[in-house]
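Help: why these numbers?

___
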Amino acid sequence: MKKSYLLILVSMFTLSMSQAQHKQVPMFVGTYTSEQGSKGIYSYLFNLETGDAEVQSEVESTSPSFLARTDKFLVAVNEVNDGSQSLSSFNLQDDILTFENKLSTKGGSPCHVMLGDKGRYAVVSNYSGGSLALYSMDENGHINAMDDYKEFTGSSVNSKRQEKPHIHSAFLGPDKAVYVSDLGTDKIYVFNVVQEAGKYQFMEKAVIAAPAGGGPRHLAFHPNGKTMYSLQELTGDVVVYRAKKGNWEQVQVISMNDAGFQGENGAADIKVSADGKYLYSSNRVDANTISTFAIQKDGQLVLKQVLPVEGKGPRNFNFSPNGKFVLVGNQLTDEIVVFNRDAKSGELSDSGKRIPVSKPVCIIF
C-alpha cells in the first residue's frame, strides 16, 4: 500500500513538472550592442500562461539585430557598416547557443535574415548596401558559402530616404518564392531560389510596384495564401495585394494611424494572426503605436485599434506561440512590453509585464 501511494506521488510530481515545463518556451532576442548596453543575443524562458520571462543566457555578438532559427541552429545578422558586417550562426542544443561560424555579408548594414528549404539556405538583406546575399547551410547550421549575391539599382521620390536601393527584408511566400522589399525603390522583387551545379541561385520571377514614396519594409501573407500585406515605412500605410491569375493585384491602401495623426512615420513590423482574422503593425518615430486590423473575407482591412506601445521605437514584435500575448521590442526605451491579446476581438491591452533589455530589435520563439 505504501509503495503504491509513493508511486502515485512520484507520478503526480512528474506530471506537475512536465506541465510547468510545457508552460515555458525558449525565446531569443536580437539587439544593437554597445559598451554600456547589450552584449549580443539573449535567451529567455517565456511563460505562456503568465507572460513572465526569465533570462537564461547572454551570447556575445556584434549588433545581432535580426534572428531566424530552426530546431537545431540560430542565425543572426551583425548589422554594422564598417567592413565587418556578417551572418553569424549558432548551434542550438538544449536551448543553449554555441557559436558555429560566420561569413561576410559583403553589403553594408545587414538588417534581416530568413531561412528557406528547411534551413538549407539563408537570405540576408543588406540595407545600406542595397543588396541580397544567399548562403548554403548544412543541417546543423554551418554556413557553407555565399552561393549568390545580387546588387540592385534605382531610386524613388523621397530624395532623403530613397536615393538608392535599400533592401530591407526577404520573406518566403505561399508559392515558396522569396519576396524582397526594397524601401529605396518602392518595389517588391520576387525570386525563386533554385539549385544549379550544387549551388543555390536567385532566379527573378516578378517585380511588384508599391505606391511611390511608401518605402516597403516588411510584409506578411494571409494563411490562405491569397492575400499579401506590405508595410510602408515612410507613410505608415499597409498595401493589400490579392493573388489574381498568377499575379499580385493592389486592392487597398490603408493607414495604420488614427485619423488625426500628424507626425512622422517609421512603420517597422507587420504580422497576421495564425487564425487569419487579424493583422498587426508597429509604428515608430512620432507614433510609437501598434495597430490592430480586422481582416475581411476578401482580405481587405478595417482598422480596429491604435494602441500606445508604452515606450519608444517599437521594432519587431511577435506573438507568443499560444497567441495569448504580443511582445513588442521598444528599442529606444530598452525593454520589451508584453501585451495581452484577446483572441476573439483581436484587441491588445497592457499586461503590465516588462522584460528589460538594452536596444531590443528582434524577438523570436
Observations:
- Residues 2-23 form the longest helix (22 residues).
- The helical segments are 2-23.
- Residues 5-20 have pLDDT under 50 and may be disordered.
- Residues 214 and 232 are 5 Å apart (CA to CA).
